[in-house]
Amino acid sequence: MKFIIIPIIALLIISCSEREHLNPFDPENPDTHGAPTGLVIVSNRNRIDLSWDPMDINGLSYYQIYRSVDSYNLSLHDSVTANFTYWVDRPVEYDRVYRYAIRACTVDDVSNLSDTLKIIPGPVNFIIADFYNFSVQKLTYDGEHVLMTNYQDSPIAIETSVTQQKIYIADYWNEQIIISDWNLSTINILALHDRPLDIAFDPQFNRLYILVLDKKQILISSTTGMITDSLPTLTSLAFGSHLCLDPIQRNLWISVPERDTIFQVNLSESNQTFIHPGILKPRRVYAEPIDGGCWAATGAGIVNIENDGNTNVYLHEYFIYDISINSENGDVYYTGYHKNTKEWATGYLNRSANFEPVLLLGNETPYLYCIQAVPGVGQSGFLVLQGGSWNLLRFDKNGNQIGAIGQYSSRLDFELD
Amino acid sequence: MKKHFILSILIIAVVRIEAQPLDLKSRLVAIPIEAKADSLTVQHPGVLKIEPAGKHRIEITPKGYLGFGTMIVFGVLSWYFHQEAEAAYDLYLHSGKFSEMRHYYDKSVKYDRLTGWSYAGFQVGFLITVISFNR
Fold first, then answer.
1. Are residues A356 and A399 in the same domain?
2. Quick check: A21 contacting B, CB < 8 Å?
3. Minimum-distance CB partner of B93 among A14, A22, A108
4. Domain edges within chain B
5. Is the N-terminal amide bond of A407 cis, ω within 30° of 0?
6. ipTM associated with this complex
7. Are residues A185 and A115 part of one domain?
8. Which of A208, A212, A242, A331 would disulfide-bridge A194, Cβ 3.0–4.6 Å?
9. pTM score, two decimals?
């Protein structure tokens, strides 16, 4: 009896085998659903680049590009021959929502439409140094697409020179400054023999000011990579210390959160140092772009220190995690939480209304730790890092979320190109 | 193909396999055994007497031929259907026409099924061959 059962079982096992639908053109293909795959779109100012995976099928003639602008209704916009797997849309208009999908056409049939992707082009891109993820990334204007990524060991701070088209990356553990071109390719390396904490670029004299931890000083370097001078900081520094240069009043500002102090080094008066104590846990410092001076995110509101030492405090009941300045109109964007109610708030100080606070996001969008404002006239858009999900969220000038991308770490530094 | 199959069946039919008896006696003699006065006396020497084994002939029975032939036929068929299924599937993978795509896919599935049945036949043949040795 067993000699009959065994072949029957074997027969049943064999009958169970099934061929997979792996033809990319096949609508029953579980991965492609019969549509082109791997569609990637990136924007860079007034152009949008599309690319996709080639379809390895016989008789493929061309790809059709479907597009819509500020609408969900896609329509046939262009087509490219089967030899190409990329297409460029140029010129495109800023702050408009472009949606794209593609379709493959053979001699006999047409494929399903690919996934639809959206993008909003704009005048700037974001550059992000992510210390704990060992990367420097360029993101598109809408904060949803990666333009390029370069991996570095410990990028703690980043600065750009728009005129020279260079990016300066402070590499903490390797004790160096990496000088890259606009495509994040390394051009030169500046050895420091000390751990850099932050850098500031001086466009007037083409200099770099580098705050270093161990020797507690500011190194001054030419942009070609020569250390020319150094300034003592008169204090011990810490991992949370930041540096900025005010090119109007020629001051360097240094925050030392462990000592609740901000230091001011006057470059035009023989590097005289002024101490501003009693500022609770100062974090990131920004140069005031219109009148000169310094803005600081602190544990007791947003602090503005004028060149003569006068101090103004805004939102003193808030623990401010980060600030960013709209360089075109001087509005100060912030993110933090109310120390009593523990409610999170993100908004800006409206310069044209005597720095009146304007709330953009309330407690429904909590744990926003880092912020980067987009330059523009009037109320501006911004990019924020949300803790927990560790995503970067991009909001437009009306406070509507237009993009999100993950995942990032807690220590980021932003720049714009 | 058919000629080769018939030829192989004929060869199997003609060949006889003969087993040689084990020569245990000569091996035992080679071991030196020294008898002493106080050693044990062999009470029943007949027990230790080793008789040479008779010649044992293994023959393939008609059932064995049937099993072996079944194995060969279904093995060849299984291989052929598998090749056909693979060829059809390869054409399906690169087809850019829906009707053609479906045709080749169905064809590959059909031949896969035939491959399965043939392989089952091969296994039946194998079992018959094994049973044929069971005396």
1. yes
2. yes
3. A22
4. 62-135
5. yes
6. 0.74
7. no
8. A212
9. 0.81
